[in-house]
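Model: Ready when you are.
Researcher: Fold this.
Model:
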Amino acid sequence: MKAPHPRSDTAAPAAGEAPRQTTALAAMLFAVAMTFIDQTIVAIAAPDIVDELHLSASGMQWVVNSYLLALAAFFALGGRLADLLGARRVVVVGTVVFVISSVLCGCVPEGSLAQTWLIVFRATQGLGAALLFPAALAVVVAVFPVERRGRALALFFGLSGALTAVGPLLGGWLTAWTWRAIFWVNVPVALIALALTALAHLSDRRRAEPLDVKGAALIAVGMGLSVLGFQQAWSWGWGSAATWGCVAGGLALLCVFVRYERGVRHPLIDMRVFDDRAFRADAAVLFFSMLAFVPLFFFASVYAQVSLSASPNQAALFLLYFFAGFAIASQWGGRILDDKGARPALKLGTVLGAVGFALWAGELTDLSMHDQWPYAALAGAGIGLVLAPASTDAVNRSLGASYGEVTGITQTVRNYAASVGLAVYGTILTHVTADRVTSTLRSRGLSEEEAREVARGVAQSVTGSGDTRVTQSGGRAAEVMRETMPAVRTDFAEANQWVFYGMAVALGLGFLCALRHPGGRVTSDAGRSDRSPV
């Protein structure tokens, strides 16, 4: 058996270092703020980008997906590099890569080069974020002692998670000036992050271990292929050989990666961490929670705009109900972790989340934004209770306090779950919307064939799963569509109910995984826990 990794290179602080801890936490929050905002900000500016640069609909989809693909492919590498090179160094490198890529995205030239330019530099943005986020999380973990880590990371996840909701609001405001500003806004944020990182005086030392290049390539290609299959399932279809070729091929490579890592002296990921029952439970709860958390941004926003006739900015405000519960509960979850361990927070959070999403689903067809806020807040509270405790407890159990490596694992799990959730829920939404709209149009006198053709266009238009536009239909079909739009909005709300009930089911599965957590608190940075009852 391999010896555990040596202690993390950034030592835990002694008493009296609270100012350094605060500065370090602020620096890491500014650094990751860019990565969270950029996950949602581009979607708001997409119509302006397409119009000015004359991009195809599929090209714009790749502009969005290239960022998420790079995130999925390189999270594990970013976490491992944080251990080998030092978390502070990797934060700085990731921030610089991210902000330079942002500037270049904003400087995209018009013409035939525009689409390729944007896709390439969105991908390098994703690479910078994949380097940056695990390293930033590792810095916070290393700077705060284990007995205060839950509260610190609750603040980290609470604020950084809430920034995802800021993306659409900020995007709408900046796009009114120029869509290029959505990328340029990262420059002052990055400069503040780098300045605070320097002021925090974080120490790093290189770890004398080689990088597992073959393992990094296997997981990057495996994650990239499988996530690509999930991303393209909407446009390629679940019956497409390309979809299943990517998904199955990626999963096969990930299986090869796991087998390979168990035989390497210095692996990219030390698989022994999965021998810890609590770590496995934490990872499973994170996976099922992220099936709901990240996809919610898309589906709730589209629901608000289609069924509630909200503007993009109003749709972003709709999400603030969710984040009100999320932000409050995340702080509570951190305190529970520090006092009693992760298990109580995971159990309570998954139950609240499942109930919140189920009740929220039941209210969607009432088409009232303000009547839904208690259920949105309850769902947010459930996710908030889970996110920080599960992530922190998993990191606390890392072998030899190898924080960067384990943060890379947890972020990979989260990103992969988000991709699966978007693909599965998107397929459900498209099919149910098409069926509901077909029934509505047939009741207004259209033939089965004509109704299905128009309904398919409606479903693809409102879910973003294809290039067909509702306005392409003409004659009697167009007239019927104008007459039945109120009914179609209700049809779309009913289709979204299936999605939200699916999110409730995901949280229910997360609860079953939480029951498998052995309980107890981690009382040292060696990854060992006491097993006292909670």
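Researcher: Now this one.
Model:
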Amino acid sequence: MASKITSQGHSGRRPKGGIDQLPSGALRVRVYAGQDRLTKKRNYFTEVVPAGPDAEVKADKVLRKLLVAVDEDRHPKTKATVSQVVNAHVPYMKVAESTRRTLIRYADKHIHPLIGSYPAQLGALDLDRYYAELGRCRDHCTRPFIQHRTHRRHTCDARCAPHECKPLADWTIRKIHFFLSGAYERVRRWEWVTINPMTLADPPSAPQPDPQPPTPDEAARILNAAWQDVFFGTLVWVAFTTSPRRAELCGLRWKHFDLKRKVLYFHRNTVQDGAEIWEKDTKSGQRRHIALDDQTTALLIDYRTYCEEVAAKHGLTISDESFIFSLQPDGSEPYKPTTLTQRYNRLAARLGINTTIRRVRHYSATELIVAGVDIRTVAGRLGHSGGGTTTLKIYAAWVTEADQRASTILLEHVPPRPPDRMTPEERAKTAPAAPYEEIASTLRNRILVGDIADGATAPSVKDVAKQFSVSVGTAHRALGLLRTWGMLSGAGRGIRPCVVNTGEVIDDTWTPTVAEPPIEGPVPGTDGAVLLDLTLLRRGEEIYSFTAQAKPDDPEQLRRLLMGAVKRRGTTDAELDDYDLEIRRSGQSGVISTFAAM
């Protein structure tokens, strides 16, 4: 049927509404609703009535309803899509920059691809289907595919496997829900939509808290393992005794350590987004003052002395503005939060403990509450805004005798700090943790036993990267660690080992391995050499231990190992008689023999 005008505006004006018949037989009701607020084009309020014997009667009712809505200004002022609503909301959000970036990533991955093209006025069915998809697969797959470990060109290994659907976490779905709800509430005030459709949504319930803190025994094992490196040991100790968030821990500067009052101030967060790092206020906006026990205070004093010694070796100094925890000798850059998480989680995994750095705070809270510390004091140490928000913002209101008692209680549940500190470089010789340390340790052992002769050309960075299947950066760090140990000199392909002299020439076909298992018997092709645990003694006092491959009954090989170990300490040949080499078979505690150079 032809277009049928059932209502008009004032005399001589364009008709306000009409009914059109579609090719399917259905009737489309259209009412002019003014200019679109977003596109500035003509905006029509439309609704389709299915074909049927009483379709015209229903269409007339719909037309009158739409005309009344337009006359009473109860109609959407735009035909915006969900993506347009979200994008219009983002510039006006009053949130931290890190939160803004997170929400934008959620929109790019979970909103725009799924419902971004939908009309802004979503229905309950649209929302139910949307949340069902979020709870099905976080990657929103449509067919099976291989989940590669990286998007770069690479050779697939066990880490590249068929994709397995995993639902989006309930907390993440709730964040998306409140993000959309805020966006719709804003455009509702702009009159883009008549109602906020998110009120029709049924998001997941908030998950029940499940802290799962490590047990005191697990905490002790983690702390003892962390002390193999004075930097990481101090960091983990401070985390267990002061309970900061990881971003607060990385944001600590030396000016935040008040030695006179024995207090640590948490004022700033170090925030990371990929390679970009910046500082901001703490999560709750509070400036916390955490009382320290005597042992933690002494530890930080010793740690600053250690940092100053490291900086002095590089011709640098430590200032009050330097970050307490930093990989830079002068503390000019903070320790990255993601690096802290990865290193702590790897340490826990090596110990067989299922925990994360975040659960350190759960551990502290649990131990304090069980010990009887009042909730207000616990909340104050953790920086929680609930449970007495106003009083917890005031330093004098909660740093009291109870807080001093809290610091002592935490100290009672951690193991004592090791009496002797070991530098990361020394620790890597006997207990390598990172991949580059394992590579350097393997190369060092081959140099010590003479597999790589003194003066022979060491493998290049590219050769090491290829042989160990690691990145060029990891290979570069491994060779740099060998130079730190004094076992390499020069640069580029001119790098040469400078320890033992076996007269052998490096084999270009040599393919080392990162980790070699203990060898109980002779190694094939090495003429009876086995893996030995060696301890250097000076006048009966243990200096350090290392592992090497040699014949336990070959005096010449043992002499070379002893001389190499002694020379790395800067000792002259005249003092060689003061040193002995204690020999054990790798993995065994019994001493085979003690070798002394005569």
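Researcher: Key takeaway?
Model: The CA atoms of residues 79 and 119 lie 7 Å apart.
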